[in-house]
């Protein structure tokens, strides 16, 4: 059975890179060797694998990759740290719940 992986790397500049591959070890080596000058990770080496998920269906792995690429940094960090409570909190729909920065303070000080 063939496996596919969606993964998150942490780059030397502390940014995250999300990708998908059918050979995780090989792909990590390629990122760190800097095979492609136009790759996001080329000038951000070394990179470190922080999270991955294994899939049996390439379509599912691509779907997960695209979903994660749309996430905020703090949501990706919550996933990496397996902090499910924050992951849920950072997944809230601001249209429905309002953005935390726009909510009034409840301190009562004027």
TrEMBL record:
Residues 2-78 form the GIY-YIG domain. PROSITE patterns: GIY_YIG (PS50164). It comes from the Bacteria. InterPro entries: GIY-YIG_endonuc, GIY-YIG_endonuc_sf, UPF0213_domain. It holds the Pfam family GIY-YIG. Belongs to the UPF0213 family. This is GIY-YIG nuclease family protein.
């Amino acid at each position: 059975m063939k496996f596919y992986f969606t993964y998150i790397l942490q780059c030397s500049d502390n940014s995250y890179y999300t990708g998908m591959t059918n050979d995780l070890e090989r792909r990590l080596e390629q990122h760190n060797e800097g095979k492609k000058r136009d790759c996001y990770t080329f000038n951000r080496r070394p990179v470190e694998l922080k999270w991955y998920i294994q899939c049996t269906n390439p379509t599912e792995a691509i779907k997960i990759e695209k979903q994660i690429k749309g996430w905020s940094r703090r949501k990706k960090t919550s996933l990496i740290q397996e902090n499910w409570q924050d992951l849920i909190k950072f997944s809230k729909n601001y249209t429905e719940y309002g953005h935390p920065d726009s909510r009034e303070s409840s301190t009562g000080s004027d």
